[in-house]
User: Fold this.
Amino acid sequence: MASNWDKFVHDNLLSTGLIDGCVLTNKSGSIISAYGTLATATQDSLTKFAMSFRRICSIDVEEEQPCDSLELKFTNGRIIKYVTFNRTNWSIYLTSSTSHRRSHLITCNLPYGIFLCSYSDNKISSQVVPIIEQFCEVLRS
Assistant:
């Protein structure tokens, strides 16, 4: 039987068919829950990702943003490198730097954790981003 959290994630994100995977970590990057394509991201790479994410978030949004590169490593040995292309006060938007099956990652800053969602290049960002941001807004409230 699925937990309330699993049901909440499925009903609000995964059932849309727009999101490939998501992972919730604490602030230091320790995995709390993971689904879909991000379920096989390694703990070590999520810890490093969280450190980089916190560093990027420490820069004022109004300042010139560096084009940071972040990566995730998966249990099958695959590594995906992401490059930031936009940022808000709460979120960082990244795209994979490879042209082979390009993917996108939205990373949201939460009061007690970090939420990552991935979606493929064949999905329309204007449909996906509001769903993820609304989901994270509920988690922040």
In short: The chain is about 30% helix and 35% strand. The chain has a mean pLDDT of 87.
